[in-house]
């Protein structure tokens, strides 16, 4: 007989990388509102992390913050050891940290390429490598990787970003096949979202105009992406495996 399912994360521990701003922050808040204990990862954002912790504590749940560069193997391994010792094993791992840079391909240096792939793709590999063993030992867990609609569509002047996010999708599908059914691995490929990365300050007007060409003609709020993450973290998604969910306003229609 099938048990009742809901969006509750009560009794579960979730880590969100890049949790202090944008989509990461919205996911951390949504998880706490659903009853989860939240582990905040950040890099050089101690003040923002403290502010977020105070907000989450007001919801009545435990929360911790750890600084680590998720593109650094040493940092990730150190953080994983601290998290497992302090917070216990994770029930949910969200690989959200990332960067976005607009640059013509012929002006893109090898250093640009390496930095983007390290931050947006290698970080996912490192985090999964660090936290999966404890999930395997418990025979349970959820991993959510944040990709992008541009990892499916591609776009001129965003080659490293598109390549990295396409890689996240491929890695998600591989891990989903290898670790199912005990561990659910899925991805979210958002369309344009109102964050510091998608703004007139960070992108050209041409790029912003391109984002607004989608059928809904608007940029999403981070909370709209967090809703998808909450679904994937919950028992409601337990038959989802290796999927790429697209809260994208219609930019991609599989």
TrEMBL record:
InterPro entries in alphabetical order: NAD(P)-bd_dom_sf (IPR036291), Sc_DH/Rdtase_CS (IPR020904), SDR_fam (IPR002347)
Gene3D superfamilies in the record: NAD(P)-binding Rossmann-like Domain
Pfam families found in the cross-reference section: adh_short_C2
Record-stated family: Belongs to the short-chain dehydrogenases/reductases (SDR) family.
UniProt protein name: 3-oxoacyl-[acyl-carrier-protein] reductase FabG
Organism annotation: Rhodoferax lithotrophicus
Taxonomic lineage of the native organism: Bacteria, Pseudomonadati, Pseudomonadota, Betaproteobacteria, Burkholderiales
